[in-house]
Amino acid sequence: MSGRNSRESDNIIELVSESDESSHEPIDGVTRFSIQWGIHSELIEFVKKKLMESIELQQFITGREVEFLKQYVEKLNVQEDRGHYNNHNELEEMEMSPEDREQALSTATNRLNGMNLKMANLGRREQKACNSISSGIKEFRILNYGGDSSDENRKNYCFNESLLVWKIKLIIRKILGAEMKQEASFWIRESEMAMEKMSETEKETALSYIFEVGSSENVHFITLINKLMDEDDSRVFSHLETLVIKDQGIENYLSHIKVLTGLFKSLVWTNQTHRAKFGQCICELMTLTLGNTELQSEHFSLIREISESFGTELRTVSTSYEQFYSLYQSKSRLFESSHLGISSEQRSTSTPSLPTALLAATTLTPARTSVRNLTIIEHLDGETEDHRTIIERELRRSGRKKRKEEEEEARIRKAEVERLKKEAEELKKKNEEEKKRREEAERKRIEEERIRNEAAEKKRKAEEEKQRQAAEAKRQEEERKQQLKAYRNANPCTFLNATLYRHKEPNRTYNQNVFNGRLVGLYFSGHWCPPSRDFTPVLRDFHAQVEDDFEILFISSDNNEAEMNMYLQQYHGDWFHLEYKCPLGNSLETQLNITTIPNLVILKPNGTIVSKNGWREVQANAQNPRQLINHWKSL
User: Fold this and answer.
1) Do residues 258 and 226 make contact, with C-beta atoms less than 8 angstroms apart?
2) Residue 381 DSSP symbol
3) Cα–Cα nearest to 537, from 527, 551, 522, 549
4) Which residue ranges make up each domain of the chain?
C-alpha cells in the first residue's frame, strides 16, 4: 500500500486482525483499526462470497444480453426472406428500410461481438478469482472513488438480498433503459422467468423495486405493469395496499401518487375492476396526504392539479372519492381563506387602530392638522382634564374594539379547529367502516372460494368414484365373461347332434355347440294352440333376460312349415329351432312323452333332465328369471 499515490481528499481506513497487527507497519495518512480475529475472518469470507456473486451477476446479465443480440441479429437477417420465418408479427414490428436495417444490423453485430468478448473476459475473471481465493489472500483492498456508490444506487440494494432479487433488479434496469421495443420485450420475458423461481417474499421485494424505480413516462414500464397485472393482478393490488398505510411521510405519499396517476392515465384498462382499484388507491393516498400535519401549499397545489385533471374519472371508479373530496374542499377553504392568508402583523400594519392614530395626532402642530382632528388639536396646548378624558375614552373604545376583533378571530380559529377535528373523526370513522367493509368482503370472498373448492373437490371425488365403479363393473363383466367361457368349454352339449336354425338369420346354420355351458329348454309348441300363443311372448321376455345361461330349442307342432315360419316371425324370440318335422324332433317328442302343448323341458348340456314342467315354472317366475335359472342350475 505504500506505493499508492495518495490524495489529500482520500479517507482511507485499514482493518487489521489483532493477531496480525504487529506484522504490518502503519502507513502515513491511513487510519488503522484492529478488530477481533473472528470478525476479521467473517469479513474476509463475506468479501469472497460477494466477489463471486458479483461475477455471477455480471455473467448472467451479459449472457442474457448476448442471447438477445443473437435473436435480434437473426431477425434482421431474415427480414428480407419472410417466407422462412414463422413469426411474421415480429417482422412487421421490425419493418424498416434497407438502409436502416443495414445500419441496425451493423450496430447489433458490433454490440454482440463486444458482449461476447466481455463474456469471455468474465469467464477468465471468474477463474482468476477462484485461483486467487484458493491460494489464500493476505490483504483485500476495496477502493471507492464515487462511481456507483451514490445514495440513490446504494439504497436499491441490500446485503441480505438473494441472487434472484439482484438479478431481477438488473433486469428491471434493462427494461427501463431499453431503446427498442424488441429489447424491452426480451427483458420482460426474462423478468417473468426470474420471478417464477422466486419465493413470495422475493416477489414482493421485486415488485416494490419496480414501483420504486419505474416512471409512468417510460413506455416499457407501462408495458411491464400491464404484463404483471395480466399474470397476477392480486399480487400487484396487494402491493398497492401496502402503499396506503399511515405515517409514511408526505413526500412518500406524493411520490406514490405521481406514479399511480401516471399509470392510471397510461395503462390499457381491459379490466375495469383493475382501473377501479387503482383509482381507489389514488384517492386513499390523497386523503392521507391532506390529513398529514406536514401539508404545505406546494403539496396542496399538486393534489389540486390531480383533482382537476382526474376528478371526474376518479369519482366514477372509486368509493373513497367523496371522502377525499370532502377533505379537499375543507383544505381548499383553509389555504384560500383571506384571514388565514394574512398574518396578524400584516393586518395591524395595513389599518392602524384608533389609539395609534390619536397618539400620532398629538405630535402634529395645529397648522398641520386636518379639519377632522381640529376639535381635539386646538385644545391640546391647554392639557385640560376634558381633553385627557376624551383621549382616554377613545383609547378605551379602541381597546374594546380590538379585543372584540381578537375574540372574533379566536372564535373563528376555534370553530375551524373544531370543524377540522370533526371532519378528522368522521374520516377516521369512514376509514374504519371501509376497512370493515373490505374485511367482510374478503371474508365473504374466502368463504365463497372455500365453498367452490369444496364443491369442486366433491365433484372430483364423485367423478373418481363413478369412474372407479365403471372400471369395477367392467372388470366384473370381463371376469364373468371369462368364467362363462371357461364354464361353457368345460360343459359341452352332448345330448344331441343336429343342424340348427334361427329365424332371424334363415340362411345360416348352427350346431349343438351353441348350447355349451347353458341350460337348454326344449320348447314344444304350435301356432294353432291358443295357450301356446299366450305363453310364447312370456317365454320370449324371460329368455331375453337370461340368454347367457339359458337357450331354447323350438320343436314345432304346427300343421305345416309355412305356419311354423309365420309363428316364428310373429311370436318367438331370438332362439334356435329344428327343421320342420325332422326325425330328431319326432324322436325327442317320443322320448320325452310329449302329449300336450305348450311344453317346456329343461335339460343340462349333458342331457340330464332338470324339469318337465318348465312352462308353468316360467309363468310363475316371469318377474324373477335369474332366481329360476339359479334354481335349475342347482338341481
Assistant:
1) no
2) G
3) 527
4) 36-135, 191-339, 392-490, 500-634
- CB distance 53 to 163 below 8 Å: yes
Q: Which residues pair with 509 in a beta bridge?
A: 501
Q: Which three cell numbers stand for residue 211?
A: 414501483
Taking domain 500-634, whether its CATH number is 3.40.50.300 is answered by no
pTM: 0.43
What's residue 11's pLDDT?
Answer: 65
Please classify residue 442 by burial: count the beta carbons closer than 10 Å to its beta carbon, then call 0-12 exposed, 13-18 middle and 19+ buried: exposed
Q: How far is CA 596 from CA 529, 532, 557, in A?
A: 10, 10, 10
Mark 86-114 as b/e (b = at least 16 C-beta within 10 Å): eeeebbeebeeeeeebeebbeebeebbee
- Whether 539 has a pLDDT exceeding 50, the answer reads yes
Q: Which of 533, 535, 512, 526 is nearest to 554 (CA)?
A: 526
- Count CA atoms within 13 Å of residue 397 on its CB side: 8
Q: What is the mean pLDDT of residues 132-159?
A: 57
Q: Which is more confidently placed, 358 or 10?
A: 10
Q: Helices 530-546 & 625-634, crossing angle to 10 degrees?
A: 80
Any long-range contacts for 485-490 (C-beta under 8 Å, 24+ apart)? Answer: 487/517, 488/516, 488/517, 488/518, 489/516, 489/517, 490/517
SS3 category, 30: strand
Tens digit of pLDDT for each residue in 401-447? Answer: 888 888 888 889 889 888 888 888 899 899 999 999 999 999 999 99
Nearest alpha carbon to residue 30 among 69, 61, 3, 60: 3
